[in-house]
Design a protein that fits this description.
Elements: E1 5-9, H1 10-20, H2 35-51, E2 55-59, H3 67-72, E3 81-83, E4 86-87, H4 91-94, H5 96-107, E5 111-112, H6 119-129, E6 134-138, E7 153-157, E8 166-168, H7 170-177, H8 184-191, H9 206-216, H10 219-225, H11 235-243, H12 245-255, H13 277-287, H14 290-301
Parallel strand pairs: 1-2, 1-6, 2-5, 6-7
Antiparallel strand pairs: 3-4, 7-8
Function: 5'-3' exonuclease acting preferentially on double-stranded DNA.
GO molecular function: 5'-3' exonuclease activity; 5'-flap endonuclease activity; DNA binding
InterPro entries: 5-3_exonucl_a-hlix_arch_N, 5-3_exonuclease, 5-3_exonuclease_C_sf, DNA_polI_H3TH, FEN, HhH2, PIN-like_dom_sf
Length: about 300
């Protein structure tokens, strides 16, 4: 079997690293926190050692709350806005991200976002457009929709950390949620997701959403069936869905990950050694990253 492309949700991992490692446990001599950088580099090293990819790309949020999604569902991620349209991010994490990106560039790992799109959309486009197999790495449940056994796309779900990855194929998605991976976005639109500001259909939870999809198909098929008096809806469920027609029409494209984002040119080939070793050494010395950088370099060589 050919070796996979690791398509990494960088914000998902560096937020997890930041919150998982105390700032005081990872600092420079001057007391500057580097916990997110060290944790991220160690996660990458572990993924490279265990998954043995020959390609690796890190996806970024060029736009964490795209206007086209907000226009459809105004509450989308609204609770996470700090001011204007700026995401609420701890200042000590915000300062670490540019250093992390410099470190990835010195190693030779491409990391990019695309204007008007989230990291999820970059990952969706990589999953659909790059040669298989593709393993998407994220703690974001929305990306279960990308799982496709026939194409060779899996989600390495790190909701409990990289050390406890769930290696998701279609069978795992079905066992976990009761729906096929291709219907996960429809399932999410009905269920809702408070973490993304998506209210869902009032009174329709995971089990009801899964049963509806099993019987009728996706949101479009379910809404179409509402006009059929013989469709077999329970009266209460029909009423709830009918009241949410407009919401569902707008929420479904918000929940669906884009797969046609115009990606920049990039070389996904995983280097066997750092592309810019002097730059990496300087960064490691300046930011007290020697241990994490060494572990990642060793993983590349291994």
């Amino acid at each position: 079997m050919s070796r996979p492309l690791l398509a990494v949700d960088a914000p998902s991992l560096y937020f997890r690293a930041f919150h998982g490692i105390p700032e005081k446990a990872a600092q420079t001599a001057a007391g500057e926190p580097v916990n997110a950088i060290r944790g991220f580099l160690d996660m990458l090293a572990q993924l490279i050692r265990t998954r043995k990819p020959d390609r690796l790309v890190c996806a970024l949020d060029a736009d964490w709350r795209p206007a086209w999604r907000v226009e459809l569902v105004p509450s989308y991620k609204k609770h996470r806005v700090a001011h204007g349209d700026v995401e609420e991010v701890p200042s000590s994490l915000e300062k670490q991200v540019p250093i992390l990106l410099e470190t990835l560039a010195a190693i030779g790992i491409p990391a990019f976002g695309v204007k008007d799109y989230e990291a999820d959309d970059v990952l969706g486009t990589l999953a659909h457009g790059q040669p298989a197999p593709v393993e998407v790495v994220s703690g974001d449940r929305d990306l279960f929709q990308l799982v496709d056994d026939a194409r060779g796309t899996r989600l390495l779900y790190c909701g409990r950390g990289v050390a406890k990855l769930e290696d998701a194929d279609e069978a795992l998605v079905m066992a976990k949620y009761g729906v096929e991976a291709r219907w996960y976005a429809d399932f999410a639109a009905m269920r809702g997701d408070p973490s993304d500001g998506l209210p869902g259909v009032a009174g329709v939870g995971e089990k009801t959403a899964a049963r509806l999809i099993e019987r009728y198909g996706g949101v479009e098929q379910i809404v179409a069936a509402l006009d059929d008096p013989d469709a077999g809806f329970a009266p209460g469920v029909r009423t709830k869905l009918a009241a949410s027609r407009d919401y569902l029409a707008k929420a479904l494209p918000v929940c669906k990950v884009a797969t046609d984002v115009p990606l920049p040119e990039f070389d996904p080939a995983l280097p066997a050694s750092p592309r810019h070793p002097d730059a990496l050494l300087a960064l490691a010395e300046r930011w007290n990253l020697a241990g994490s950088a060494r572990r990642l370099v060793d993983a590349l060589a291994g």
